[in-house]
Amino acid sequence: MNGNPVYHWIGLAIATAVMVPMPAAMLRGWVPPWQRKKYAAGVRLRAWALLCLYGNILANGIPRLADASYRTVTACMSVGFGCIAAAAVLFFLADRRDNRATKAGCSWSRHEPAIDPGIDRHPSAAVPQVPIHTEDRSRKC
């Protein structure tokens, strides 16, 4: 059932080389260039989600490398499904955080200043234009 361990070692080595450095850098504060303008608010949640996916790889690969029993491999596969579910929730929360930051007018790039969202005004023309929000929105980002 467990197959040739050489293939599992190769798969774990490639997965480690591909999936660990980027989330580790993202957790230290680095934001990938393609995410700097719009998707930087949830970058840490995305990093944790990627590490959960890496945990799935470990949960499925290590028992097979250890030539574990069928029950152990199946139990670890269940743990791997839990890692996938956690990653899905974290990706969802990251997207939600990005949407909130975009609506608030936040810019998370180091190269450009935060966008000033202006003052929200009452939509009715009959009512005088009075500010609804007077607090500084840039602090919420």
Helix proportion: 55-70%
Proportion of beta-strand residues: under 5%
What class, by secondary structure content?
Answer: mainly alpha
Provide the residue-averaged pLDDT.
Answer: 79
Distance between the termini: 50 Å
Overview of the molecule:
The chain has 141 residues and is an all-alpha fold. It has a domain at 5-99. It is 57% helix and 0% strand. It contains four helices and no strands. The chain starts with a helix and ends in a 37-residue tail after the last helix.
Features:
mainly alpha, 141 residues, 4 helices
Lay out the secondary structure.
Elements: H1 5-19, H2 21-27, H3 43-65, H4 70-104
Helix pairs in contact: 1-3, 2-3, 3-4
Task: Write a brief caption for the model.
This protein is mostly helical and 141 residues long. The chain has a domain of 95 residues.
